[in-house]
UniProtKB/TrEMBL annotation:
Protein source organism: Streptomyces globisporus
Listed Pfam families: NUDIX
Domain called Nudix hydrolase: residue spans: 1-129
Family annotation (InterPro entries): NUDIX_hydrolase-like_dom_sf, NUDIX_hydrolase_CS, NUDIX_hydrolase_dom
Protein name as catalogued: NUDIX domain-containing protein
PROSITE patterns, per database record: NUDIX, NUDIX_BOX
Keyword annotations from UniProtKB, A to Z: Hydrolase
GO MF term set: hydrolase activity
Amino acid sequence: MVAVLIDTVAWVRIEEGRILCARPRGKDVFYIPGGKREGAETDLETLLREVREELTVGLIPETVAHAGTYEAPVDDRPGAAVVRMSCYYGDYRGTLAASSEIEETAWFSFADRELVPPVDQLLFDDLKAAGALR
């Protein structure tokens, strides 16, 4: 059986060696902010919309830069869906605030790696190796 591919984009925001994570309402796990594309949206269009919807800020399109793309199974069941997460850096305008769809935000260090899904953990590993996460 071929696994379902869940195609997502994520915003990588690092400040003082910590990465911004968000926990959606009704979930018990934190994620890198972002989400799935709608229709024929590009990565950039999806990223701008998702960050605005989740964190109430506007990314500045000309500052958005690809940080890496990662793939990992959603969980360890055979045939589990696979998440592809295309990650982007970018500056923003406004004040970061959790929207109505986000229960809470947090700034995670590498020590918090186990609190995020497997695909996010791959990003944590690369950021740690590059010296960006403490």
